[in-house]
Amino acid sequence: MIATGISQDLKTSIHLIRTQSYINGQWVDAASGEKFDVINPATGEVIASVTDMDRAEVKKAIDAAHAAWPAFRDLTAHERAGLLKRWYALILQHKEELATLMTMECGKVLSESLGEVEYGAGFIEWFAEEAKRIYGDVIPSHTRDRRLVVIKQSIGVAATITPWNFPLAMITRKVGPALAAGSPVIVKPATETPLTALALAALAEQAGFPPGVYNTVATSKNSEVGLELCENKKVRKLSFTGSTAVGKLLMSQCAPSLKKLSLELGGNAPFIVFDDADVDAAVQGTIASKFRNSGQTCVCANRIFVQEKVYDEYVEKLVQAVSALRVGNGLDKTIQIGPLISEKGMAKVKNHLEDAVAKGAKIVEGGNHLTGLFFQPTVLTDVTTEMIMTREEIFGPVAPVTRFKTEEEAIQLANDTDYGLAAYFYSRDVARCWRVAEALESGMVGINDGMVSTVVAPFGGIKESGLGREGSKYGMDYYLEIKYLCFGNIK
User: Fold this and answer.
1) Could you say which of 97, 228, 264, 393 is catalytic?
2) Which pTM value belongs to this model?
3) Which of 1, 176, 277, 463 could form a disulfide with 420 if both were Cys (CB 3.0 to 4.6 A apart)?
């Protein structure tokens, strides 16, 4: 179904717009006839009205996926890989259209959206190849008359709940290994960004996935739909990216059926600049890490710690770089900072900023709400650990800078958080690089690099930043069951 009244800016991607959900190989409306609007955060315009599915309809999707599971898991790895490779090629073929749609939905600038399409497609290609490498083991037997074998099998129906800030890559990073392993999927995208998810489903349909294997359910009824995905015993795996509070809730709801979980939750990433760092490189790394997607990523630099010897130089150069960032509609290719996603997000940024200033922080660049959902890129100095923004994700284009004296102090400050998703530091001392990397309590560490995400490396955190890893060879394990076979009485 093609939406009517869609913004003129979507001319290049109009044929990928879907406003129905995709269940069991069919595009369907909600039985209630209810819909919800998808809003462009840059303009406030309604892009499209999307069908609003409820719990009963999600159950139908789960039933369809469960029914499709036996035939799909019995395909050879080569056959499943072929489907994934066709889907990968279609995603790249429609790269410009998907990126435009993504920018319209979530506000990120077009260059970042194009990068996300390529990054997200990369997971499909990677796991198409990994499908052929789901190896088992032969274990040397403890007796002469036994043979011991380990095989890996598809876990079953996999449900994915994805966030708005990476509406394409967070889907492909989850469904790539599931489909490669032979598990049908249910995709529940964020209410803010269902159109990118539904466009992916349209391309999956073109790739030839059998009915029931790939399902996408658009809904604003997040609590009741999430509860069905957690409580339904036919769902054997749940993967969620989002806040720690919601992750804990989903974990408790999954407990009665002991689902296998992957939870990629909140972050509070430290970004440390030591006095032996290349300050220019550190500033560029800060811009890449802190201001990507207007500061709305879980791996953004949230707390910036700079050693006192280079503090003034770093702040001066950071202010110069931040002042050059242009704010506006992400469809304009000259723009580097798009809008925040919502009024709630804007209120949070303002609250964090007001709290910091009240407690002694100084605004040395920016600090203004411009118009609509646009906020001026901001740099704060004299930030202390008593301020809210050092305890919670800012999720906006605000860079708080704190001075430190010693390496030991930097590590203590960095680890003084309940979270442990990503961490970054800059130093040219090899010994220090090893010491600090090993001491940081984080699932991922960028050393002289502000962008660590890649298809080939494991993504995930420790402490309250979640469970499990996504991407890389490790990502496949979370969609497989290990089975031990003991052949006895062999004479």
Assistant:
1) 264
2) 0.95
3) 463
